[in-house]
Amino acid sequence: DGAEAASPAAEEKAGEEEEDDLGYRLFPDRNKKPQSFLVRSLFTFHNRCQLMLRMTLDTNPYAQLLLEAMKQSGCTVFNDRHFSCENCDGCVSGGFDSATSQIVLCQNNIRQQSHMNRVVTHELIHAFDHCRAHVDWFKNVKHLACSEIRAANLSGDCTLMNEIARFKFGLKGHHQTCVRDRAIRSILAVRKVSKETAEKAVDEVFDACFNDLEPFGRIPHSKTDAKRAYRDFQNRDRYNANL
C-alpha cells in the first residue's frame, strides 16, 4: 500500500528549485505529452484505472461527500479534467498536483477497488484543502503536514480493518498513532526533508489538524459512518434555512 502523497507540485522556473525536491520524480508521466486515445486504450492499466475511478465517484460515500463539499466551496470537480490515471514510481498510489488542480492516480499501483476508494478520498481531501485555504504546499512543510494529517484521519487510511491488514493491532490511541505515522511517511515520500523535520512539522500542527473534521463533521471509521456524514452534510443547508 503506497504512500498517498500530496502534491507532486508546480514546476518552478528553471534554476529556482530543483525539480526533484518537489516530488515530480515520483510521477514521471506528469511531464510527458499526452498519448493519443488509441494508444491509451491499448493499455489495460489505464482502462482499469478509469473504470475503478468511475465506480468510486458514483458509489463511494467518502468521495461523494467531498465532491459535494468542493462544489459548495466553488471548486466543482470534473472527472476528465481533474483526475489523471498515470504510471508512477513504485512507492506511491496517488498525488495532488496543485499546479494543475489535478489528482494523479497511479494506474500501475492501484489494483483493487477498495484501494482506489481510499486513494481518491485521500487526494480529494488535499484538493478540498487547496480549494478552501491558501496552502503553501512547497515552502511551508507545516501546511503540507496539516493536510496529510487530515487526509490520513478522514480518508479511511487508518480504519481498524486496514490496520489489521497491515498486521498492526490496536491499543489505546492507535488511530492517532496511525494518522501521525502515515502523515510523516507521506511527507517523506514527496519532500527531501529529514525524518526529524517531518516529525516536528506533524507534531506541531497535530492537535489542530487532527480535530479539523471538515467537511465530514466526524471521523468516518467505516463506510456506514461516511454515509451518515454525507447525509448530514446534504441536510446542513436545510437545517440552517429553518433557523
UniProtKB/TrEMBL annotation:
Coiled coil: none annotated. Residues 1-22 are annotated as: Disordered. GO terms for cellular component: mitochondrion. Its EC number is 3.4.24.-. InterPro entries: Peptidase_M76_ATP23. Keywords: Hydrolase, Metal-binding, Metalloprotease, Protease. One of its GO terms (biological process) is mitochondrial protein processing. The keyword Protease applies. One of its GO terms (molecular function) is metalloendopeptidase activity. The keyword Protease applies. It is an enzyme of class 3 (hydrolase). Belongs to the peptidase M76 family. PANTHER family: MITOCHONDRIAL INNER MEMBRANE PROTEASE, MITOCHONDRIAL INNER MEMBRANE PROTEASE ATP23 HOMOLOG. This is Mitochondrial inner membrane protease ATP23. It comes from Caloenas nicobarica. The lineage of its organism: Eukaryota, Metazoa, Chordata, Craniata, Vertebrata.
